[in-house]
Automatic annotation (TrEMBL):
The chain crosses the membrane at residues 12-31. Residues 39-61 are annotated as: Disordered. The lineage of its organism: Bacteria, Bacillati, Actinomycetota, Actinomycetes, Micromonosporales. This is Secreted protein. It comes from the Bacteria. Keywords: Membrane, Transmembrane, Transmembrane helix.
Amino acid sequence: MTAIDAQYGRRTVRWLALGMVGLFAAAVVYINPLAPEPTAPGQRAAAPATHSPGGHGGDGLTDKHDGYALLPVTLPDRRGKALPVAFRVLGPDGLATTEYEPVLSEPLHLYVVREDLSFYQHLHPALAGDTWTAAVDVPDGGVYRLYAEFVPRARAGSGHSTVLGAPFVVAGDTSYAPIPPPAPRVKVAGYTVEREEGAADGVAGRPRVVRFRVLDAGGAPVTALEPYLGAYAHASVFESTTQSLAHLHPTMPASERAAPGDGVLTFHTQFPQRGRYRLFLQFKAAGTVHLAPFTVVAA
């Protein structure tokens, strides 16, 4: 058994609420030493410092990047369905950013994952005044991270979105699941999604094209895929040890092509480093968005 397998092996952990809250607070102070100082009502917050750990747009492992900062207002502290989340995005001037350019048809995308990558949720929050709000599901105790992806209006035309992240901890019994090994196909709600490369390893550090084929219950290609977020599929990728976020970009938006007659979804990607990745592919068929998770090893 490898160290990674041991780390993510099935085990039960009881989180001690007071201890974890204290540990979490300490971790936030350590990870985010540049967090804005509290301000009086109506007072301008200090401008967030520029921080660039994850490439052009960030990887979601920090709450500050390229002059922008994620300021949580409400984070889940218990398990349950449709729990409230609220946050602000501060700009280089220290004020809340309220004007955005659409990214894949939405002004902001919110992702929530658990640290073992056994849970993934993709949401589109609502902006009320200067605060983004959403309702997220928390199926189990443990450590979670939320990611906000957006393009500020002031950065329109930059060619990349900004990704900020913040962790939160939910106390209680936690059952961790090991990351599944790479598989050539995944079944979901009567469909089969095949990775065209099978279970072959990816190549780290090189741009490449990846393809997935959607088949119906009878094994025939699905020719009636429906547009989702301006394309015929959406995919996000998380590295297994750090949970850094990367994206697969569709080769062509839905507005420029008909639904693929062969059921094949094609993306550009680049795995930034060697390791295991959890890839979450979303596609829409018969009016419903489906999620097909894959494990990919980049060598």
